[in-house]
C-alpha cells in the first residue's frame, strides 16, 4: 500500500517536473551549462581517482591501463615517508586548531571593549590587510622577514644572541607556519564574531550592571554565551576542514631541509605525482586523504546537526 | 557609572595590545616597501626597518624595464579579467535559477553543487583531466577548472532570494520571459552583489599561482605571481614543473624581490578600500544562511 502510494507520488512529481521544464525552459537552460561544467570539472576528477586502482601511464588513457587493485595502497602503507607526512599533517592541523582558531575570538573580544569607534575601525581595517595578499607575496615577505639580515635576526643580534636561519631549520618550521597563518587570518577571522557581538541585547548588560557584575563577569556570563553559537558553527566547519592546512603555503615555505617537519600529505602527493611522475601512487595517497576529509566533514556536520540544529546541507 | 581601577588598567593594556597587533600586522609589509626603496648594502647590513636607507629607485626602473616582467604582468591582467568574467557569468547562471521559486529539484541541485565544496577529485586526477583536455600552456587551464566558488554562488543566491517576488510577477504579467526578467530587472537590482562578487573573484584570480605553476612551461605565459615565485624560490635548486632551473643558481637580491613584491600587490592595495567594504558585507551576507 505504502509503496504503491509512493510510486504514484513519484510519477506525479516526475510529470510536474516535465511540465515545469516545458513551461520554464529558459530557467532550466540557464543552469544546464553549469551542471555540465561541474560534471566534467568537479565530478570528473572524482571518478578519475580510479587511477589509484589502475596503472596510469602519462599520455595514455585517463582512466588508466590495467587493474592493479590495492597495489598502490599497499605501497604507501610500506612507505616510511607516508607516516612522516601523515604525522606532520596532523600536528600542523592540530596546532592551527588550537592557536589560529581561538585567536580571532579573543581579538574580537578585545576590539569589543573599545569605545573609540574611529580607533576600532582603524585596527580592523589594518588587520584585514594580510588576508588579501597572494600566498606568493606572503611567502616572499616571510623569507625577507626571517632572512639572516632581516629585521628579526637584526633584533636577535642586537640582543646579543646568535642569528637563526629560520627557514632552513626543521625545528622552526611549525612555529613559522602557524605564525604566518595567524598573521594572515587574525583580523579576517574576527569578522563573524564582531557581527555576533553587535547582536547581543544591550539590556542584558544593563541588567547585569544593576546586579553589580563587573566587566569581566559580564564578559563571562553575557558576551561569551552570546557568541557561543557562532563559535560552535565555525569550530565544526574548522574540524570539517581539519586536513586542509594551506598546501600552497607549505609548498612555498618548505624546502628539502625542512621536509622533516614541513612536508604534509598534499605536498608529498604533489612531489610523488607531478614531480616524479608516479601518478597512480600519488592519486592513491591523495584519495586516502580525501576520504578522511570527507569522513571528518560528514562527522562534523552530523555533530552540528545534533548540537546546534544547524547542518551544512 | 564609575569604572573600577581594574577595568581602567585593562583598558590601557587592551589599547597597547591592539596597537601592537596593528604594528605586527603592518610591519612585514612596510618593511618590504622600505627595502624596495633602499640600497642593497643597507639591506645586507640589516639596517632597513620601516624607513628606506640609501634611497634608491633604480631597481624600480630596472624591473619596470624588464620585458619579461611586463609580459607576465600583462598576462595576470588578462587572466584576471577573463577569469573574473567567466566566474561571474557561471555563478549567476547557477545562483539565479536556484533562487527562483519555479525551479523544481532545488534540493537535489543544491546538494549537487555544495557537495563539491567538501569533496574534490584531488590534485592528480585534476591534473590528468586538465592536461588531457589539451589545456596545458593555455589560459583555459587557469580560468576554467576553478571558475566557480560555490561559497560565492551561495552568497549571490541569498541576495537574489531577497529580491521581492512582486517585481518578477509584474514582469511576467507584462509578458517578459525569464531572460527578460533576469536582464531587465534582477541584474540591474543586483549591482551591489555583482560588484562584491567581481572583487571576490578578481582578487582570487590576481593572487592565483598554482595552476599556472603546474600547467605552464612557457615563460611568456606566466602570470606575474610565477615570476615572483621563481624569484623567491630562485636561490634554491628546486625544480618544479613550471620552474626553470637555469637562472635558479643566481642569488637574487632582497632589493629586487621587494620591488617585485610591491609591484605585485599594488593593484590589491589600490582597490583595498573597496575590497574592505564590500568583502565585509559579503561575508556578513553569506553568514545569514551559511
From TrEMBL, chain A:
Membrane-related topology note: Multi-pass membrane protein
Domain ABC transmembrane type-1: 86-300
Protein's GO biological process: transmembrane transport
Keyword set, alphabetical order: Membrane, Transmembrane, Transmembrane helix, Transport
InterPro entries in alphabetical order: MetI-like, MetI-like_sf
GO terms under cellular component: plasma membrane
Top-rank lineage group of the source organism: Bacteria
Transmembrane feature ranges: 25-44, 85-111, 132-152, 172-201, 222-247, 279-303
UniProt entry tagged with the keyword Transmembrane helix: yes
Pfam hit, one: BPD_transp_1
Gene3D superfamilies registered for this protein in UniProt: MetI-like
Compartments (UniProt record): Cell membrane; Membrane
Similarity annotation: Belongs to the binding-protein-dependent transport system permease family.
Official protein name in the record: Carbohydrate ABC transporter membrane protein 1, CUT1 family
Organism field: Gracilibacillus orientalis
UniProtKB/TrEMBL annotation, chain B:
Membrane topology term: Multi-pass membrane protein
GO biological process, one term: transmembrane transport
Chief localisation class: membrane
Keyword field: Cell membrane, Membrane, Transmembrane, Transmembrane helix, Transport
Regions that span the bilayer: 12-34, 77-96, 108-127, 139-160, 181-203, 256-275
CDD domains named among the record's database cross-references: TM_PBP2
The ABC transmembrane type-1 domain, residue ranges: 73-272
Cell compartment(s), UniProt: Cell membrane
Source organism superkingdom: Bacteria
Keyword Transmembrane helix: yes
UniProt GO cellular component terms: plasma membrane
Entry keyword Lyase: no
Assigned protein family: Belongs to the binding-protein-dependent transport system permease family.
Protein name: Carbohydrate ABC transporter membrane protein 2, CUT1 family
Species the sequence originates in: Gracilibacillus orientalis
Organism lineage: Bacteria, Bacillati, Bacillota, Bacilli, Bacillales
Amino acid at each position: 500500500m505504502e509503496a504503491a502510494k509512493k510510486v504514484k507520488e513519484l510519477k506525479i512529481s516526475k510529470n510536474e517536473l516535465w511540465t515545469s521544464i516545458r513551461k520554464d525552459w529558459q530557467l532550466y537552460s540557464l543552469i544546464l551549462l553549469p551542471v555540465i561544467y561541474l560534471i566534467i570539472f568537479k565530478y570528473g576528477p572524482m571518478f578519475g581517482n580510479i587511477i589509484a586502482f589502475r596503472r596510469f601511464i602519462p599520455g595514455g588513457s585517463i582512466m588508466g591501463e590495467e587493474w592493479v587493485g590495492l597495489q598502490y595502497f599497499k605501497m604507501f602503507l610500506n612507505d616510511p615517508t607516508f607516516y612522516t607526512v601523515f604525522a606532520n599533517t596532523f600536528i600542523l592541523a592540530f596546532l592551527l586548531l588550537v592557536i589560529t582558531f581561538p585567536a580571532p575570538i579573543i581579538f574580537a573580544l578585545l576590539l569589543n571593549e573599545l569605545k573609540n569607534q574611529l580607533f576600532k575601525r582603524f585596527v580592523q581595517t589594518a588587520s584585514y590587510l594580510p588576508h588579501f595578499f597572494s600566498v606568493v607575496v606572503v611567502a616572499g615577505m616571510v623569507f625577507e622577514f626571517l632572512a639572516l639580515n632581516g629585521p628579526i635576526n637584526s633584533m636577535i643580534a642586537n640582543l646579543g644572541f646568535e642569528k637563526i636561519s629560520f627557514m632552513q631549520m626543521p625545528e622552526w618550521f611549525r612555529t613559522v607556519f602557524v605564525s604566518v597563518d595567524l598573521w594572515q587570518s587574525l583580523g579576517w577571522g574576527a569578522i563573524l564574531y564582531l557581527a555576533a557581538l553587535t547582536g547581543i541585547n544591550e539590556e542584558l548588560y544593563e541588567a547585569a550592571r544593576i546586579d553589580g557584575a563587573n566587566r569581566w563577569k559580564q564578559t563571562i556570563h553575557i558576551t561569551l554565551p552570546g557568541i557561543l553559537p557562532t563559535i560552535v558553527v565555525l569550530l565544526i566547519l574548522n574540524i570539517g576542514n581539519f586536513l586542509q592546512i594551506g598546501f600552497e603555503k607549505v609548498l612555498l615555505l618548505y624546502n628539502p631541509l625542512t621536509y622533516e617537519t614541513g612536508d604534509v600529505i598534499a605536498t608529498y602527493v604533489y612531489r610523488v605525482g607531478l614531480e616524479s611522475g608516479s601518478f597512480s601512487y600519488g592519486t592513491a595517497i591523495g584519495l586516502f586523504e580525501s576520504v578522511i576529509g570527507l569522513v571528518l566533514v560528514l562527522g562534523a556536520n552530523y555533530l552540528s546537526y545534533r548540537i546546534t540544529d544547524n547542518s551544512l546541507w | 557609572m564609575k569604572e573600577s581601577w581594574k577595568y581602567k588598567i585593562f583598558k590601557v593594556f587592551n589599547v597597547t595590545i591592539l596597537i601592537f597587533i596593528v604594528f605586527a600586522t603592518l610591519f612585514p609589509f612596510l618593511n618590504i616597501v622600505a627595502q624596495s626603496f633602499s640600497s642593497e648594502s643597507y639591506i645586507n647590513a640589516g639596517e632597513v626597518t620601516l624607513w628606506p636607507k640609501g634611497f634608491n629607485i633604480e631597481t624600480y626602473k630596472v624591473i619596470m624595464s624588464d620585458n619579461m616582467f611586463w609580459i607576465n604582468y600583462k598576462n595576470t591582467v588578462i587572466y584576471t579579467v577573463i577569469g573574473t568574467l567567466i566566474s561571474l557569468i557561471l555563478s549567476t547562471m547557477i545562483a539565479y535559477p536556484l533562487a527562483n521559486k519555479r525551479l523544481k529539484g532545488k534540493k537535489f541541485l543544491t546538494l549537487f553543487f555544495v557537495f563539491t565544496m567538501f569533496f574534490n577529485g584531488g590534485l592528480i586526477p585534476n591534473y590528468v583531466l586538465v592536461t588531457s583536455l589539451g589545456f596545458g600552456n593555455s589560459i583555459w587551464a587557469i580560468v576554467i577548472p576553478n571558475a566557480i566558488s560555490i561559497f560565492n554562488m551561495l552568497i549571490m543566491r541569498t541576495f537574489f532570494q531577497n529580491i521581492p517576488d512582486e517585481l518578477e510577477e509584474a514582469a511576467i504579467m507584462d509578458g517578459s520571459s525569464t531572460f527578460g526578467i533576469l536582464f531587465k530587472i534582477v541584474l540591474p537590482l543586483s549591482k551591489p552583489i555583482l560588484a562584491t562578487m567581481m572583487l571576490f573573484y578578481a582578487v582570487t584570480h590576481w593572487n592565483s599561482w598554482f595552476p599556472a605553476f603546474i600547467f605552464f612551461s612557457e615563460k611568456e605565459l606566466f602570470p606575474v605571481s610565477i615570476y615572483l615565485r621563481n624569484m623567491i624560490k630562485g636561490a634554491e635548486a628546486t625544480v618544479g614543473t613550471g620552474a626553470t632551473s637555469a637562472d635558479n643558481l643566481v642569488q637574487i637580491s632582497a632589493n629586487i624581490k621587494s620591488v617585485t613584491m610591491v609591484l605585485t600587490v599594488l593593484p590589491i592595495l589600490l582597490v583595498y578600500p573597496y575590497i574592505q567594504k564590500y568583502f565585509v558585507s559579503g561575508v556578513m551576507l553569506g553568514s545569514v544562511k551559511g
